[in-house]
Amino acid sequence: MAGFGSLELDLTEKWTTRLGARYTHDKKEADLVAATYSPGAADPLNIRLATLVAPYVMHSQEAIDKKVTWDASLEFKPRDGALLYARAAKGFKSSSMNAGVFSPEDISTAGPETVIDYELGAKTSWLDERLQLNLAAFYYDYQDYQVVIVQEDTNALRFSNADAARVTGIEVELQAQPAERFFVRAAYGRSDGEFRSFPRAAVPVPVNQGQPLDLKGERIPRSPEYTGSLLLQYSVPLASGNIELQTDWRWTGQTNFATWVESQQLSPAQPFVPLLSAIRDGLTQQAYSVGNARIAFVSANGDFEIGAWVRNVGDKKYMVNAYPVFYNRNLVQFQGDLRTYGITLTYNFGGRSN
Predict the structure, then answer these.
(1) Is 74 helix (H, G, I), strand (E, B) or coil?
(2) CA 254 to CA 60: how far, in whole Å?
(3) Averaged in consecutive runs of 10 residues, what is the pLDDT profile of the chain (354 residues)?
(4) Do 289 and 166 lie in a common domain?
(5) Which of 72, 160, 247, 332 lies in the 20 to 30 Å Cα band around 352?
(6) Element spanning 246, H or E
(7) Residue-range definition of the domain harbouring residue 82
(8) Given 3-state DSSP classes, what are the helix, strand and coil percentages for the chain, each rounded to the nearest 5?
(9) Cβ(92)–Cβ(145) under 8 Å?
(10) Does 30 reside within a domain?
């Protein structure tokens, strides 16, 4: 259940302010049932032949979050095609519950997460709108940042909250049309996200001998140091239509997939000491780039198109996620798509939409 309101006020011809507020009442309930069975010899996959080893464990969870959030912005238009702005906003993420449990110890709930976002930016256009340049700087101040950790003994997830975290960064976006049939778009972002307070963080038992870890100053997982992208499009006119050429590339900085992976305070159990370097490497994706290419013929009236494309032209191997499964000394890694290619045929019954 939620209610919200907003107000926009023109202070002068060039100055505008916007104010908004929202009240959210969020309720979540979960009924969890778990049991342990020993598989039957005749058919290990048939649950009807299995023997109950541990009784059912039933647990009910409930979380009720009541939050008021808001946003406020101030805009200044010094000229046509230019906008300078400042914005502050408060948002929140409701409580998260762990529904995939293997034992009562796995049951956990992360409380609501709140963030105050501060942003300064500019959106500008030049040369009769053939060039657009947008700039932004931001600061995110998190309280009770939600964290998920994979447990080493059951492969279940443990939900918790870091006391505080912050993210600072910049973003630059450029769009240009240097010629009638040539289009360029480029973007670059850089961010620095870290835990400001996380004194007793739960980490998998083997990497710190069952002891909590102080993760203050450690980088927030799944937040690359930088991202970049570039898109180039060119159109070649023909009597019967156009040949369209396109390539796009993206660059992603180093990314880690575990809250503790960069910590220098780890004191792993003895069997894992020689494996620690490999564990860090297996849960960290180094900087990489991926590019795509496409060539297509588009009929003059736009109703017919045939195109050939290649994704990940360099056949780059990279991870998009990873987590440890220590009870059998494994790391689970999710790989991005390798090189794929194909042909697409499109027919638009009302003509091509722009």
Answers:
(1) strand
(2) 40
(3) 90 96 90 72 73 68 89 96 97 84 70 96 95 98 88 64 96 96 97 94 82 91 95 95 97 93 87 87 96 96 93 97 79 94 89 52
(4) no
(5) 247
(6) strand 241-252
(7) 1-25+58-197
(8) 5, 65, 30
(9) no
(10) no
